[in-house]
TrEMBL record:
Transmembrane segments: 217-241
Designated name of the protein: Transcriptional regulator, AraC family
SUPFAM superfamilies associated with the record: Homeodomain-like (SSF46689)
Domain of life: Bacteria
Species, as recorded: Teredinibacter turnerae (strain ATCC 39867 / T7901)
GO MF: DNA-binding transcription factor activity; sequence-specific DNA binding
Amino acid sequence: MKSRKLFICLAVLTFCAAAAFLLLSRLRVQLLPAMASDLPFSLVSSSDTSAGGQSEISVMSLQDHLVFKFELDAAFSYPYAAVGLVFKDNTRGNNLQDLTRFSKIAFKVQCSSATTLNLVLYTLDAESNNATRFENLRPSLVSFPCGARSTPVEIGLRSLVTQDWWLSEQGLPPTDTSYDLHRVYSISLVNSRQTPRSKPVRVEVDQLTLTGWDLHLLLMAVGCVFSGCALLLYTFLYAIVRSRLSSIETQPVFEVGSAQVEPDEVEHAVVVKHLQVTTKKDREKFAVLQYLATEYTRADLSLNQAISQLGINRTKLNSILREETGLTFSSYLNKLRLEEAARLLLKADGASIAEVAHSVGYNNASYFNRIFKTEYGCSPTTYRKRVNDNQTAHPLTD
């Protein structure tokens, strides 16, 4: 019992540990405001001016949220304006950040006029070691709508697509669209081809957050869950085995024998059918037959009482009786009582019919006479007289 309680306590503790690891494994890093971010970065704005364009962009706020304003050059072929969060990593002396722990980036965005913007992830391929040249950075992007009302946006960090023009410039096949989240240079918000030109666009970004899972803590949580389940399963199986062994050790075993049992050697005239008790089904059969063999003389014995006492349902009890005796509960109960009554009528010469009826569970002598006559073809009085007369005419000899 103590070991069982110990295993249950250990299982509860492992489930609690699993819940704790699961909570700790959830990653959530706020990038704004910049001063409070766990991932340090510098905000860098850029436009097409270096390529001869006249697009303009300016950062208006970087406190609790990011606000910037840009206007694209209408005459330039490929106008460009962007705000980028360029990561810092002072421990390694470079600007690359490992974002493999994160799965999504989420934020709220609002634009002064409805448009479409791009979120661009600039990464450095493993083959390249120079992140100072912009041409070496792989641009992978996804588009999202931006309207006059603040709208939540959630983007999977592994669902971006590398631009075809960059693959062509690098001499890479169009199918080479994978990027390395181990080496992220920046996250940028850039105009798209659908962004209107020669029209100022004001953008507000709030609650910029990276979310994900710590794989090591998540695996520890899963391990704790499996350990807790294993402990509970072991405790459950251990209890079943102990109960089964205890039942087998304490349950008497009845084997079929050929020895004849004299009526005077048993307490009742009806002997319970011999069973070899080795299985649960056999034990249930034995319990039913033994219970009826010892309790049938109770006048208040009923099917409901037997079900309650034996702990089995009505269908199971009747099924056992039909299989073992071919009778229903009430029929088998009457058979037990009547056979015992017949035995008592022969032995208890001084007992009245009413006393015999009462001793086998019948409080109503008239009812006893009626069912006795149905079973034996004569009344109890006639049965006693006939048998006694027959024994007198043909006495038993040794």
